[in-house]
Structures are given as C-alpha cells and as structure tokens.
C-alpha cells in the first residue's frame, strides 16, 4: 500500500472540548425564542438534537443529514419566532468550549511536508463557516486540502457516500488513503466499509468492547508520523 492521503474526523479527533453542558448550549437559543420561560424549550431542543443524531447515526446507517436550523424548526415551528438569532446564540455558546488538539497542527504540517494530501470529514449539523473559523483560528484550515461537512450532504458517516465525497474531492482511491477517527462505528467501520484503512484515536474517551477492529490504534494523532511509514 502506498499512502497518498490522510483523512480526519473533526469532533473528538482534531478538536477537543472543554467541559460543557449540552442543555446550557441550547438554553442560549431558548432564551432568544422564549425569554420568559426558556427552560422547557431548552430541554425540548436538546431532546430533538438527541433524536436527530440517533435517527441518523445512533440506530441508523448514516442515511439523511441536515442543519441546526432543521433541529430548531422541528421544535419552534412558528415562523414568527426569531429562529436565525436563536441559532446564532446557540453556535456562539460553543465558542467557549471548542479547542483543538495541540498536536494537530504539527502533525498536519509534517504530513504535508511529506507530500501527502489531507482531508476532513465531519458529521455535523453546524454550518461550514463555523467550523472553518475555528480551524483557521487554530492554524489548521490551510493544512487541510479538502473539508467536507455532512450538513451539506444528503448522508452522514458511516454511510459510504460521505467518505466517497471526500475521496472524490481529493482524487484519491480508498486503497491509498487512511482515515483517523475516535468513533468505532461512524469512523472506523464506516471507513473500512469503503476500503480505507482506519486508525482509532483512543486518547479522548474510553473505547467500549466491540466487534469492530481498527487497523491501528493510537492515543494521539502525532503517532501517525511513525505509523504511516510502516504502511
């Protein structure tokens, strides 16, 4: 195998998160939509998000995608409500929680220096501009040749379409690419299903026993610099 490209998940792989409360994030939107009594609406928004994820990648196969607006409008259907302002408040609440792996920039630069293509595939309902701003602030945007966000697709990981969209954009065949992610089903099983070698990042959270077997495991993305020459 000749490796031509290294592809990354975003959440939990290149990105890290400070301690956060998902309900508090949605409360920021609820305070715009219903300032007199935001708590019940915040809970309904959180429940709607959980259901949205479960339908697509929890119990589903990645079929279907969507945006933050889809989730908000599923709860706040009245068109007179300030939905766009609420979405902005929700996204803004995440600014304080999102960070990136300290090893990510050096690792990506080293991969680029070796002549490898790089790409990003993120399961997300957040918009491209939000991710791109965070990546730019971390100095990672220019080091990722192609970034694919499933909010712009009709399917999500582990669906093959999501992976093929990134591979096609990079003009790389699955057999010459490696995917790195922190989730066994979405990232590892999904990537292997289209013929990619898959590396599980284990340093973010406990990995539960599973029948899914990654091609390699590592605690930090920096480990790629030693792994790839062996492939």
Tell me what you see in this structure.
The chain has two domains: 5-17 and 99-230, 3-Layer(aba) Sandwich (Rossmann fold); 22-94. With 231 residues, it is an alpha/beta fold. The chain is elongated. It is built from ten helices and eight strands. It starts with a strand and ends with a helix. Helix 2 (22-33) packs antiparallel against helix 5 (83-94) and helix 3 crosses helix 4 (68-75). The strands form two sheets. The chain has a six-stranded parallel β-sheet, sandwiched between helices. A two-stranded antiparallel sheet has the order 2-3.
What layout of secondary structure does this protein have?
Elements: E1 5-8, H1 10-14, E2 15-17, H2 22-33, H3 38-58, H4 68-75, H5 83-94, E3 98-100, H6 104-113, E4 117-122, H7 128-137, E5 146-149, H8 160-170, E6 177-181, H9 184-193, E7 197-201, E8 216-218, H10 224-230
Helix pairs in contact: 2-3, 2-5, 3-4, 4-5
User: What is the C-alpha radius of gyration, as a whole number of Å?
Assistant: 18 Å
State the low-pLDDT regions, or none. Answer: none
Q: Overall 3D geometry?
A: elongated
Beta-strand content estimate: 5-15%
User: Distance N terminus to C terminus?
Assistant: 6 Å
Annotation, overall tally of beta strands: 8
Approximate helicity band: 40-55%
Which structural category fits the helices and strands?
alpha/beta
Q: What is the CATH fold-level name of the largest domain?
A: Rossmann fold
> What is the fourth-level CATH superfamily of the largest domain?
HAD superfamily/HAD-like
Overall pLDDT: 94
**Major β-sheet profile:** 6 strands, parallel
Number of H/I helices: 10
How would you spell out the order of helices and strands? EHEHHHHEHEHEHEHEEH
Adjacency order of strands in the biggest sheet: 5-4-1-6-7-8
The structural domain count equals 2
CATH class call of the largest domain = Alpha Beta
């Amino acid at each position: 195998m000749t490796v031509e490209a290294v592809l990354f998940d975003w959440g939990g792989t290149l990105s890290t998160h400070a301690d956060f409360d998902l309900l508090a994030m949605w409360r920021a939107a609820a305070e715009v939509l219903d300032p007199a009594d935001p708590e019940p609406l915040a809970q309904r928004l959180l429940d709607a998000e959980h259901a949205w994820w479960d339908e697509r990648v929890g119990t589903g196969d990645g079929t279907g995608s969507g945006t933050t607006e889809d989730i908000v409008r599923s709860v706040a259907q009245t068109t007179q409500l300030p939905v766009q302002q609420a979405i902005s408040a929700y996204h803004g609440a995440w600014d304080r929680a999102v960070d990136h792996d300290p090893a990510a920039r050096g690792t990506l630069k080293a991969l680029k220096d070796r002549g490898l293509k790089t790409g990003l595939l993120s399961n997300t309902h957040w918009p491209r501009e939000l991710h791109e701003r965070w990546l730019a602030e971390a100095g990672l945007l220019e080091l990722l040749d192609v970034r694919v966000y499933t909010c712009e697709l009709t399917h999500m990981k582990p669906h093959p379409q999501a992976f093929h969209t990134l591979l096609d954009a990079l003009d790389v065949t699955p057999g010459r690419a490696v995917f790195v992610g922190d989730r066994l089903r979405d990232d590892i099983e999904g990537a292997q299903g289209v013929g990619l070698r898959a590396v599980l990042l284990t340093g973010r959270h406990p990995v539960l026993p599973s029948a899914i077997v990654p091609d390699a495991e590592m605690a930090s993305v920096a480990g790629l610099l030693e792994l790839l020459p062996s492939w």
